[in-house]
Amino acid sequence: MRRRRFAALAGVAVAALMASACTLPGIGGSGDERTSVAPQTPPPGAEGLASFYSQQLAWSDCEGAQCATLTVPLDYAQPDGDTIEVSVIKVPAARDSKRIGSLVVNPGGPGGSGVDYARAADFIVGKGVRDAYDVVGFDPRGVGRSAPIDCLTDADLDTFLGSDPTPDDAAEEQSFARNAEGLGQSCATTAGPLLGHVSTQDAARDMDILRAALGEEKLTYLGKSYGTYLGTIYADLFPAQVGRMVLDGVVAPDLTAEEINLGQAKGFERATREWAAYCVEEGDCPLGDSVDEVMEGLRAFLRAVDVNPLPRTGDNAVPQLTEGWASLGIAAAMYDQGQWRTLVDAMSEALKGDGTSLMQLANQYADRNPGGQYAGNIMEVIYAVNCLDKPETNDVAERARLAEESVAQAPTWGPFLMWSSLPCGLWPIEPTGGPKTVAAQGAAPIVVIGTTRDPATPYEWSVRLRDQLADASLITFDGDGHTAYTRSNDCVDKAVDAYYLKGTVPKDGLSC
């Protein structure tokens, strides 16, 4: 019951660990300051949005940064109708004398908090970039502090995430479908009209209003994982406003939902095999003495936990590790090879009958505190956005067929991912978007980064987007984990920093 949940975490772990909450204006902030910028006109065809494009942000001190709210229309087709407030944070350039402008960032998701991500500015961009740019983040509509969508109670979300993700027979398939449909109904009840207006296109339009409110003629942008999709849609809508844009860990906009599910299944299969090789090389792998043995042992473990969940300690809200939670825990370690040792130890513990450590990894994945409180709403809003962006089948039998066929290419992760997007097939609101090739003709050069063994956004997707864009440069990082910039490679970092600081476009095909 998960839709592309694996694409959600680019940067989120960093933000959750290193960022503190933003104190918004009127809730304890001090030193309100309305920074005057030259009013900008809306793009052609959007003259009715003039009042939004000319707004001045009222910045307020919030724990070493500046916070504000941006007013945007609920429905862009009715600019004179209801509005919503988007939470924005600015971490000023470290060296004002070197300031170039504003760098807007998005960590992924959909559902990752750009506010939390920007608070980790010292870790998400290079030092020179940090010196020269105000790092600006915003929670996209429906996310975090921006009219958040909250479909389920924490207890109900625990049940949803922990339920069987790979139904084995007709009865389990129908139960899965009921839960999937129930999520959408709950979202419709709690979110109201907003649920139909949280698409990526809506967020991209908000981002252009933010660009204008920051006083920037062009958008300088860093998007990771789903943030690349947001950036690409922005470039499609506003090519003339594209400045220095970096897209790291690409979700290509022309992918169908089925292609995304299968692509991620294959990506996680590839990444898990790399972890299995590491496990064997360490010499104390609890699952086997070869990569194939480890992979089969992992699948056997998940089948066993499906039937007999493991006890775990320290959290009365979730006293047992189910297949659903175990899958999330294993997936969490695939995002960063620094977690591989943790997963080896957690699996050793789990095979001895204790699911505590594997559940700790799952908590990290779900942005969940050990006591059962969720720090954000990423695990809910990810559906709300994706279900508007891409059409899905609601045919349970077709879903079962896709899951069965996926085993040939991704025996460990195929069924999990193929079933994951059924909630969108049963969503109460029809999708407003769909697969689309984007050229962004007329945009400034866009830098695309792909990691060869990225689990969540397979390298092939970065190549695919590079081939579509009219003017782009591809950096290839030969490595493991999800995304590359400031995460694991000096070659990538230097190329991106030079682009942001000097406008030097990396050579297309640069390999790091």
TrEMBL record:
Instruction: Please give the Pfam families that the UniProt record associates with this protein.
Output: Abhydrolase_4
Keywords attached to this entry? Hydrolase, Signal
Q: Locate the Peptidase S33 tripeptidyl aminopeptidase-like C-terminal domain: which residues? A: 411-512
Give the signal peptide range.
1-21
So which domain of life are we looking at?
Answer: Bacteria
Which InterPro entries did the record assign? AB_hydrolase_fold (IPR029058), Pept_S33_TAP-like_C (IPR013595), Serine_prot/Carboxylest_S33 (IPR051601)
Q: Which GO terms describe its molecular function?
A: hydrolase activity
Is Magnesium a UniProt keyword of this protein? no
Family membership, please give it.
Belongs to the peptidase S33 family.
Protein name as it appears in the record: Alpha/beta hydrolase
